[in-house]
Sequence to fold (185 residues):
Amino acid sequence: MTLLLYELGPEYEAIVDLPLETDDEQDTCVEELSRSLEAIRGEVGPKVLALAKVVLSLDAEADLLEGHARMLLARAGSRRRRVEFLRRWLQLQMEGAEINKLKDPFVTVWLQESPAAVDVVDEANVPAEFKRVTLRLPLSLVPPGLFGLVQTCDVDRAAIHELIKRTGELPAGVQYRGRRHLRIR
Fold:
């Protein structure tokens, strides 16, 4: 697609229509463009004016393509948001009606169990052995003199998962919840 704003001679239209370069072919395309420019005969003044028109045409085409790309990205974002809304709505409807799976010849929709998640409700009440500092040591192993040097303190959810698997007990300050998500095939 070439957008020509001006009437150009065939030798200048050929420059506009040269193949687009990719990163791998950039040197080859620059050489081809240089050869095409050198092949144009004539005085410098008209040649410069004609090439200025080529520049304006290519710049206008680039602006048009960038605007089109922005519009397409906005539409794609809108579609993604609608998909997420519809997925949440379908899941709520299926859970409300206690339907786990629906199927027809073209589509299958079902609710699938996801791995359970650890939600930290009150980080202050989580035992020290389930907290990690930037050193990646259990907080209970950090000497009291180094507490001022700790930059971040995170709850080690993997260790809590292991505790629940081994013993079934849930430490203070966390909740363990199962999740479901919608699958469509």
